[in-house]
Amino acid sequence: MADTNVSRVTGPPAAPQHQRSSRPLATPRARLRYWTIIAVLSVAAAVFGVGLLAWDNPMPVGSDGFWRIAEMRATNLVIMAVVAICQSVATVSFQTVTNNRIITPSIMGFEALYTAVQTTAVYLLGVAGIMAVQGVSQFLLQIALMVAFAMLLYGWLLSGRYGNLQIMLLIGIIIGGGLASVSAFMQRLLTPSEFDVLAARLFGNIANADASYLPIAVPLCLVATALLWARSRRLNIMVLGREAGTGLGLDHRRETMRVLFLVSVLMAVSTALIGPMTFLGFLVATLAYQFADTHDHRYVFPVSALTCFVVLSGAYFVMRNIFHAGGVVSILIELVGGLVFLFVILRKGRL
């Protein structure tokens, strides 16, 4: 009887409470979802990669001829992987530093500078100008010009009384627009044959890359990505804003300059390698945040890189082997990316 009375007073035992955690992917369900998405993206990347190597290969599977053709095609896969890592990691980092999820590093004038260099070469040298800007030394020169241009802009606009990211972005857009206008003026003065040759270089295309560029592009890509990965925890603080970051002991301006320098290297490598792809980074960064469902850069970076490779390789596989129009891959990606950009701009609610 005493036990019954005690149970009536105290009631049934309380249900166990879930432990709270400040970790990213705090619950088992969130972790399962994340690793499932990683697995799905990895399988999709492997399927498209094998498809690009083996699909429509005229030689018998396993023969010497088959592997020789697959080895030649593997160069395109390496180029796609480099571009995917550069575009995805650079865009995610740039959006974190600027605290804006609807912009990409392309607005800082990288692609406008690339277009101006290519157009000037053809304007001064004719069709031979395309050959004049090809080669390992010219590839290095283009990367150096883009990085120097970006760092001069960053160093000027983020110091002294101009230390404002918004002003930097606006001036970057204006300079990019000015370079684009100069390029358009020179293009109007070209002959039809010269313009046709130039137009093929002004669209982002895997065919624009040369295997001789990879010994330079791959180390630059891996080193810059590794340094940004090592700064993931600082990027997690920077996304809180200047005031919060400073309050947590972060030298916000110095860290911003370092991240922007690494972003410049990645974007310069990607643009000099295959040409401009304005909305590719925005597209994969937007998808990566939706897939990862966390703001921790240690988890966002892998998802964004895998997503970018799947988008690139999938679009290239479909357009090349089904529609036989491999050259329009960049146009398709830009179209889809532009539509996603408009959707995000017009969408109500959080990004």
Tally of helical runs: 15
| Overall mean confidence score, pLDDT | 82
- Helix residue percentage: over 70%
Radius of gyration: 24 Å
Q: What structural class should be given to the helix and strand makeup?
A: mainly alpha
Uncertain parts: none
- Terminal CA distance reads 60 Å
**What string, H for helix and E for strand, traces the elements in order?**
HHHHHHHHHHHHHHH
Coarse morphology: globular
Number of strands: 0
Report on the biggest sheet.
Answer: none
How much of the polypeptide forms β-strand, as a percent range? under 5%
Task: Outline the fold blueprint.
Layout: H1 2-10, H2 28-54, H3 64-98, H4 110-125, H5 128-132, H6 136-157, H7 165-188, H8 192-201, H9 214-230, H10 232-238, H11 242-247, H12 252-274, H13 280-292, H14 297-321, H15 329-346
Helix pairs in contact: 2-3, 2-14, 3-9, 3-12, 3-13, 3-14, 4-6, 4-7, 4-8, 6-12, 9-12, 13-14
Concise description?
With 351 residues, this protein is an all-alpha fold. 73% of the residues lie in helices and 0% in strands.
Molecular structure report:
- The protein has 351 residues and is mainly α.
- It is built from 15 helices and no strands.
